[in-house]
Design a protein that fits this description.
Number of strands: 7
Bound molecules: zinc ion
Radius of gyration: 19 Å
Oligomer: single chain
Strand content: 15-25%
Shape: globular
Length: about 180
Amino acid sequence: MSSYTKVELEALLDGKMPWDKVQEIIKNPKDTTRFEDVVNIFQERVKFKEKILLPLTPKLFIVQKGKERVIKCCCSHEYGDYRVNWKLYSNVYVRDTQESLDEVYPGSHSLDPRNAQIREYYCPGCASQLEVEALPRGVPADFEFLPDLDTFYHHWLGKVLPEEFEHVDKTGEVLKHWAK
Ligand SMILES: [Zn+2]
C-alpha cells in the first residue's frame, strides 16, 4: 500500500507540491506500490490504451503493444522500438545562429555558434516540446535512457514481462539503414 494518496502523487508529478512535502517523499523509504501508483496516474491521462511499462518523461512512455515494446507520446504518436533513440523520429528545431542562440541564452550566458548548438525536439503528433539539448556541432543526439526493462520488472517489481528483449541500443542499426 502506498503511503501517499493519488492526489499527493499527482501534485508531485505536476510540480504543484510544496517543497517541504516533496523533500519528505524523497527522504522516505520508497514504498513498493509507488511505481504502479505513478504509472496508473499516467495511464489515466494518456490518449492510448496500450499498457505503460515505463514513463520516460512526463510525455513519453514505453508501452507494451502486442508483442512489441514501443515508445509513445501521451497524444498516442508512436516512435517505434524503445531501443532506438526516439529523437530520430521527432521534429527538430536547431538553433545554430548567434541570433537564435541568444533568444535562449542572452547576454553574458551567450553561446558561440561555432562551438555549440541547441536542438529542440518536438512531437510530430501534438507539437509538444519533448526535450532540449545543447551539444557541440555534429555530435549525435544524446540517447538519454535505455532502460533494462526485463531486469527492472524482474528484480524490482517481482514481475515478468510477456517477452524478453535483448538489452541493446538499436539506434546505430537504424542510422546505418538510412545511410544506405
Ligand atoms: Zn505527441
